[in-house]
Amino acid sequence: MLIEKLKLTIKKLRHEQFGQCSERRALLEQLELKLAKVEETAAQARAFADHVAAYPAAMK
């Protein structure tokens, strides 16, 4: 949910680039960095969940 919200906000900011001020550009960069971190955290969580789910099967 957060990832989709960040992507939508970034898309809107990119669309409004005409007459862009430095503050908007800085906000866009911050949102892109936050999105990258959230996506990385989500990927790590999925990998950990997959590892945990596979662990009991390896014990048999």
Structural key phrases:
60 residues
Overview of this structure, please?
This protein is an all-alpha fold and 60 residues long. Helices cover 85% and strands 0% of the residues. It has 2 helices and no strands. The longest helix has 37 residues, at 22-58. The radius of gyration is 18 Å and the shape is rod-shaped. The model has no long low-confidence stretch (mean pLDDT 83).
- What is the strand tally? 0
Number of helices: 2
Summed over residues and divided by their number, the pLDDT gives a mean of: 83
* Derived structural class: mainly alpha
The helicity comes to over 70%
- What does the radius of gyration come to? 18 Å
Order of helices and strands: HH
Beta-strand fraction estimate = under 5%
The span between the termini is: 36 Å
Main beta sheet: strand number and arrangement?
none
Uncertain residue ranges = none
Sum up the overall morphology in one term: rod-shaped
The gist of it:
The chain is an all-alpha fold and 60 residues long.
Indicate the topology.
Layout: H1 2-15, H2 22-58
Helix pairs in contact: 1-2
